[in-house]
Design brief:
90 residues
Length: 90
């Protein structure tokens, strides 16, 4: 699942949750959304709170991706314009 043994040791309650009813379904959602959240947040929170954590983390990831994309677009535009001004081939 991608969690370290030390995280399991810190969150011993992990072993009290149902693998089929809680752990696998929530891990599948975390994986589908593409976020990384602490094991305790993934399992101990009620489902409505768990959904909020997923949505919050997904928004942060989307903002980061958009920011990175925008930076790459701006950077490539800058270099393309610089190349045109300097007379070099693009």
């Amino acid at each position: 699942m991608g969690y370290s043994k030390s995280e399991l040791v810190k969150f011993r309650q992990y072993f009290s949750y149902s693998l089929e009813q809680r752990i696998r379904p929530r891990f599948a959602l975390v994986k589908e959304v593409g976020v990384k959240i602490p094991l305790s947040s993934m399992l101990a929170l009620s489902f409505p709170h768990f959904e909020k954590v997923l949505k919050m983390n997904r928004k942060i990831i989307l903002v980061d991706k958009v920011s990175t994309f925008n930076f790459q677009v701006i950077q490539s535009t800058y270099y393309r314009e610089y190349d045109l001004l300097s007379g070099t081939n693009v």
